[in-house]
Amino acid sequence: MKKLACLIIHTERLHSESSWKKTENILKFFKKHEVRASWFSMNPAFVGFEFDELKWIKGLNILKSYNQDIQLHTHFYKGKRGVFKGEGYDLDKENVEERIKEDKEWLKNKAGVNVSCFSSGAFKMNKVVLDVLNREGFECDFTLRDPHLNIHGDVWQIPTLSRFKDILKRKRFLKTGNCIFTTIYFHDYDLEKPFRLLFLKIIVIVLSKLGFKFVIAPELLKNLKDSDIFLHPNDHKKVNDWKQIFKFLEKNIDFKKIDSFLDLGAGTGDLGTFAIRKNPEIKVVCADINNEYLNIISKRNSSIKTLSYDINNQIPFDASNFDFVACLGTHHYGSVKKNINDLIVDLKRVSKKYILIDFFPNNSPYVFFQRIFYPNYNPRRYSQKEINNIILNNKLKIVSKIGTRTIFPKIMPFTGSTVFYLLEKI
């Protein structure tokens, strides 16, 4: 698994000679340790303040001479000068569009920099900003504070979770299928404080010793796009759970013999993208009630067909339409009114051969502790006997089953959090 770290630096003091002494200090340190950071530059003549443009351009040129990456950092002030700490912001469409276009053009025309990544001043963000970023051709945004990846249109929202004042509070390392990554954010004026300058150096040294590679923002985006697992906030499965499911399927299914694949409650499409990796010719349909997730699936792999679908309704396909039908993490919750027998009947109807479905066990060591720490979490749970009766009554054959978050996933799958059943029509 790749280990990646990305330094996100908001530049607000490139015009300051006193600040530059510390900045050049860290640049020499970066050069010695072969570290590239992404410096998100403002337009020094933006509304609210006016800094010395020539000094700012000189600073950007010095950053480029040290092979550093330069991206865009915009503040959405309007009509006020000398604003302080995020006051006077205007996130209406007209002002947002004007600010982003103006700042982007300034970096291109005055500093010779074409940007693809963005970060908003004071972490101000809304749909208006994301829509403008899409229209202006940006590829990613580093404003998100929630520890989950997201995609809005064509813009990937990558969490920026670590800063000096909350370094001990937030989850700092996130996993995807092929990498663990962290984004570390600070301002250039933080470097004026000796402790913070030292702290940054320590972070670089420690992460390097731990095997992390420092990458710039566009490189981090490329690695995340190539990932085989994209967790979403409602996914009860973790990265290791997904890897276990993939290995389980690889062992039991010859994907070269699977021509069609349906994933119901597909989330962000991890199963569908996995199926295509195993067989690029396979026809995959991913269905989910969340249109934002469907958009993410389309961006991950354009060959996957997506369908907006509520699991409470009948599956909108003819009988025996798919070689493989999956339904994971979907039927466990109160919003689903369809009972499990009706769901199994419908899954069996549209499947030619295989069904993959998961169940939460009613009593297990994992569930015992889960009920203590999360007393309000009450999904539908089943005993092993209940599940066996459901399968038997629907004339399905158990090909194999596996449990997650247990040290006995094969021989005692009901001791963990979830049991995954691979079923075959008889």
What does this structure look like?
By secondary structure, the chain is α/β, with parallel strands linked by helices. It has two domains: 2-225, Glycoside hydrolase/deacetylase (TIM Barrel, Alpha-Beta Barrel), CATH 3.20.20.370; 239-425, 3-Layer(aba) Sandwich (Rossmann fold), CATH 3.40.50. Helix content is 34%, strand content 22%. It has helices at residues 17-32, 53-65, 93-111, 127-135, 194-209, 217-225, 239-252, 270-278, 291-300, 340-350, 365-373, 384-393; strands spanning 2-11, 38-41, 69-74, 117-120, 140-141, 150-152, 155-157, 174-175, 179-187, 213-214, 260-264, 283-288, 305-308, 322-327, 351-359, 396-404, 418-425. Strands 1, 2, 3, 4, 5, 6, 7, 8, 9 and 10 form a ten-stranded mixed sheet that branches. Strands 13-12-11-14-15-17-16 form a seven-stranded mixed sheet, sandwiched between helices. Strand 6 (150-152) and strand 7 (155-157) form a beta hairpin. Helix 3 packs across helix 4 (127-135). The longest helix is centred in the N-terminal third of the chain and has 19 residues, at 93-111. The mean pLDDT is 91.
